[in-house]
């Protein structure tokens, strides 16, 4: 299995490399086709512009010849003067410029026709080009261009011959018949030459500006090319990194598959042991659940038996000494084992809800508070006298002085409302129901009455 995996990975890697090469070739071919299409479109634009220029030159030459004929007829009918001389010179110069442009265009057309003829012959003799699917289209296009150039050349040659510049150079000055006409003609020629020179200077300046703009554009193009090269290098670097990461992932997967095959037996053994252990734990859980249910039933039966036992009345086994402090007696009663040895009254919900339990807890809490008051140290003056700090009228045994059967003399209580200032009323109790002055029998009787 490992050999098959390795062979499959090698085959996959080789196919991926071939696929990447084919993609690169296809991308290069598309880029080359795009460049060829752009070049072809540029050539078509140049050809179209040249044809339009030749047509415009031919038209202008015809117009110049027609104007020249009209001027010649007009000059033969009227006498020459300054306006006539000026018109005549402008017509002659326009005709001369048109003929010169036609001759230059004729030379360019002849050169283009020769270049296209060379390309046509080369295309016809190239055997490799014949196998191309665009061979016939290229051949037809070149033939059409050569024929178009030939037609334009023939038309321009005919127009140039009609202008008859050689004979016109001989008969041109026949219009100037006097010295005044010659001076006027020279002045007009100088003015026209000056205007032409100004236009030429403006054209030169415009040309220089265009050259500067072109240089700047070339610089931007160069910077863009350098940026494209840098981006391409970065792309290749990232591609190589991704390729290495992909190969590493493939190797990790192979290693994982190897480890999986090697550890399959161990995992099966571990799974079997875990299943057995899980089964054992389930059995133990079921047994514990049964024990819990049995314990719950036993606990419920015990609680029911305790609840029925509390309903029976019990006789008091305690004997109270009259000289003993009642708080100590009650504390002994409620701390005796016979009171709570059989059950837990605090945790028994049936017992806690009874009125007897509430009254008993109230009595115990009162006795506990009184015992805490006895434990607290007394406030005494520097002479050893007892002092109280009551906020009330000192009429109950909560007052320290009244509890110790002394009157309030130099205490911190309020003198205007204090009722323990008179020694005759010191032993008088305003609240005889205070548990401190109540015996055990009185408390028991009051509980029974309640």
UniProtKB/TrEMBL annotation:
Keyword entries, A-Z: ATP-binding, Coiled coil, Cytoplasm, Nucleotide-binding
Primary location: cytoplasm
Gene Ontology annotations for the cellular component aspect, listed alphabetically: cytoplasm; microtubule associated complex
Localization in the cell: Cytoplasm
Chain coiled-coil ranges: 106-159
Matching InterPro entries: Kinesin-like_fam (IPR027640)
Keyword Coiled coil (UniProt): yes
Chain intervals with Polar residues compositional bias: 298-308
Protein name: Chromosome-associated kinesin KIF4 isoform X4
Taxonomic source organism: Cephus cinctus
Lineage: Eukaryota, Metazoa, Ecdysozoa, Arthropoda, Hexapoda
Gene transcribed to yield this protein: LOC107273852
């Amino acid at each position: 299995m490992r050999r098959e995996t390795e062979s499959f990975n090698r085959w996959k890697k080789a196919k991926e490399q071939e696929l990447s090469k084919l993609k690169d070739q296809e991308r290069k071919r598309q880029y080359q086709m795009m460049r060829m299409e752009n070049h072809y479109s540029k050539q078509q634009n140049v050809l179209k512009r040249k044809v339009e220029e030749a047509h415009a030159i031919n038209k202008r030459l015809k117009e110049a010849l027609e104007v020249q004929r009209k001027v010649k007829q007009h000059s033969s009918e009227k006498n020459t003067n300054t306006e006539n001389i000026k018109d005549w010179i402008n017509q002659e110069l326009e005709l001369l410029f048109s003929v010169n442009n036609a001759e230059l265009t004729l030379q360019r057309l002849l050169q283009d026709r020769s270049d296209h003829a060379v390309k046509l012959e080369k295309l016809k003799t190239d055997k490799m080009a014949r196998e191309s699917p665009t061979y016939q289209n290229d051949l037809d296009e070149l033939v059409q261009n050569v024929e178009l150039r030939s037609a334009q050349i023939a038309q321009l040659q005919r127009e140039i011959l009609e202008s008859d510049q050689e004979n016109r150079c001989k008969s041109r000055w026949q219009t100037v018949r006097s010295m005044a006409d010659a001076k006027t003609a020279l002045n007009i020629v100088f003015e026209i030459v000056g205007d032409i020179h100004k236009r030429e200077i403006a054209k030169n300046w415009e040309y220089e500006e265009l050259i500067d703009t072109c240089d700047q554009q070339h610089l931007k193009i160069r910077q863009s090319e350098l940026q494209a090269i840098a981006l391409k290098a970065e792309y290749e670097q990232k591609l190589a990194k991704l390729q290495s990461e992909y190969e590493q992932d493939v190797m990790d997967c192979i290693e994982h598959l190897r480890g999986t095959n090697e550890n399959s037996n161990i995992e099966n053994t571990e799974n079997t042991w875990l299943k057995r252990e899980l089964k054992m734990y389930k059995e133990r859980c079921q047994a514990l659940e049964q024990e819990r249910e049995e314990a719950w039933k036993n606990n419920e039966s015990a609680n029911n038996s305790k609840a029925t036992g509390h309903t029976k009345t019990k006789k008091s086994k305690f004997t109270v000494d009259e000289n003993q402090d009642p708080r100590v007696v009650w504390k002994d009663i409620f701390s005796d084992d016979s009171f709570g040895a059989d059950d837990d009254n605090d945790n028994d919900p049936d017992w806690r809800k009874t009125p007897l339990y509430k009254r008993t807890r109230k009595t115990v809490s009162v006795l506990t508070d009184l015992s805490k008051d006895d434990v607290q140290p007394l406030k005494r003056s520097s002479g050893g006298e007892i002092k109280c700090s009551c906020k009330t009228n000192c009429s109950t045994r909560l007052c320290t002085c009244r509890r110790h059967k002394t009157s309030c003399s130099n205490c911190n209580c309020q003198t205007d409302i204090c009722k323990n200032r008179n020694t005759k009323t010191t032993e008088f109790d305003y609240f005889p129901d205070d548990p401190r002055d109540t015996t055990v029998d009185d408390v028991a009787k009051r509980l029974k009455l309640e």
